[in-house]
Amino acid sequence: MRVLMCFFLLLTVPMLAMSTTVTVFGSAPDIAAHAAILMDAKTGRILWEKDAHKPMAMASTTKIMTAVLALESGRSHETVTVSPAAAAAPKMKMHLTSGEKIRLSDLLLALMLESSNDAAVAIAEHLAGSVPEFCAIMTEKARQIGAKDTLFETPNGLDAGNHHSTAYDLAVITRYALEVPGFIELTNTPSAHFSSDKRSYVMTNKNRLLQEYQGANGVKTGFTGKAGHCFVGAAKRDDMQLISVVLASGWGDQGRARKWIDTKAVLNYGFDHFAYEAIIEGEALAGTVPVTRSRREGVEYVYKADLTLPLHKEEQGQVEIRLTIPPSIQAPIAKGQVIGWASVYIKDQLCAVMDVTATEEALRHDFKTSLEKVVNQWLSQVGNEPVQLVLPEFSL
After folding, report:
1. Does residue 46 contact residue 38 with C-beta atoms inside 8 Å?
2. Confidence class of residue 374 from pLDDT cuts 50, 70 and 90?
3. What is the CATH number that goes with domain 31-274?
4. Is 115 labeled as catalytic in the residue annotation?
């Protein structure tokens, strides 16, 4: 089994995304799920995984992306007119009727609290005009945020065509979703009462993790005949926000119960084994590089951003920062210019690459630039207006 991957997304710090594997610490989570992952939300580091990149049906965990697009649309206040297609969606559903008018914000509550399939279709049609168009937008959004092996063919997760994702992609999508304004509040709503123009609704959150696990703050259940019982979970303790995904924990009553057991085992592994450690302080001095064709002999450079990682106690003291800097740099150099990079290794496993930047400028000063200065001053005096002549490169 491939385990404990280091992966950092461009959403947090300006680093090149890298991935690698090392040995699992302690006992691996004992789970029945066919695919699973544990991700640290702050850094994107994968703390444990099981077949996390295997394409799988993901059932109603699909609705995480549906909710994200609805929240980001800024149209939650709008009134949705339910189409016959939305009203005909299969269970689970809130039993909308054709022509019924209801606020989009209320459909979101039905979507995430009770996983209403008709609400998902109504949202998709209202925002994009049709389900296929909305699914295309969902898929493109997934790719934009780094979930590149996800294809949405329904907005509610019902089995259709090649509708699929991976445990890794769902963790990436959820990591993004947790930062969308209103998403955590939506998924943590215990119950809701609202009305359309035809009837009143009462919704109760079906996420048992919220009541059964300390720090739980998300996210979404799922089940279809193809996907089995699935769950994307999230929990925060102190400053650590973890994301868990379990796909195909089983079928029937056994699978329904097992997804909660699997999720708690995965989250426990993270909270029990990992703690944050500051690795790099942004703007901290990293070194000096010699400069040629300048009056400056050298320019100092610093790390571009902070880097804090969740580490196991066995990894402490095993972090190494390796700098890749040229022997010298030719002027001119601008302040903030990238002049190299720092590679972060944990036990010789590459986990991240961060830019290092110049702290100050270094102006070019050689025969060519001196001659340009003299010529430009003379031409400016002759023509009574500023001149910026640039001479071609040459050597004496």
Report:
1. yes
2. low
3. 3.40.710.10
4. yes
Helices (H), ranges, the chain? 63-73, 84-87, 104-113, 117-128, 131-144, 167-177, 183-187, 209-212, 252-273, 367-383
For the purposes of burial, counting CB atoms within 10 Å of the CB of 346, is it exposed (0-12), middle (13-18) or buried (19 or more)? buried
List 83, 105, 115, 116, catalytic entry = 115
For 238-330, strand residue ranges (E) read: 240-247, 274-280, 285-292, 298-303, 307-312, 319-324, 329-330
CB 226 within 8 A of CB 22: no
Question: Which among 63, 93, 141, 264 is annotated as catalytic?
Answer: 63
Q: Give the pLDDT band of residue 370 (cuts 50, 70, 90).
A: low
Q: Do the Cβ atoms of 217 and 234 come closer than 8 Å?
A: yes
Longest CA–CA separation in the chain, Å: 92
Which position has the higher pLDDT, 21 or 279? Answer: 279
Per the residue annotation, which of 50, 60, 105, 264 is the catalytic one? Answer: 60
The pLDDT assigned to 21 comes to 46
Euclidean distance between CA atoms 359 and 374, whole angstroms: 29
Pick the closest to residue 168 from 352, 3, 350 (CA basis): 3
Per-residue pLDDT tens digits for 87-99: 999 989 999 999 9
- The yes-or-no answer on residue 148 being catalytic is no
- 3 contacts 28 by C-beta, under 8 angstroms: yes
Q: Is the peptide bond before 92 cis (omega within 30 degrees of 0)?
A: yes
C-beta of residue 333 within 8 angstroms of C-beta of residue 354:
no
Distance CA 30, CA 269 (A): 10
pTM above 0.70, yes or no: yes
Q: Is the dihedral of CA 62, 65, 69, 70 positive or negative?
A: positive
Q: What is the pLDDT of residues 240-289, one digit of tens each?
A: 999 999 999 999 999 999 999 999 999 999 999 999 999 999 999 999 99
Q: What pLDDT shows up at residue 364?
A: 82
pLDDT tens string 42-86: 999 999 999 999 999 999 999 999 999 999 999 999 999 999 999
> CA-to-CA distance for 36 and 166, rounded, in angstroms?
9
Backbone torsion region of residue 319, taken as left when φ is above 0, otherwise alpha when ψ lies between -120 and 50, otherwise beta: beta
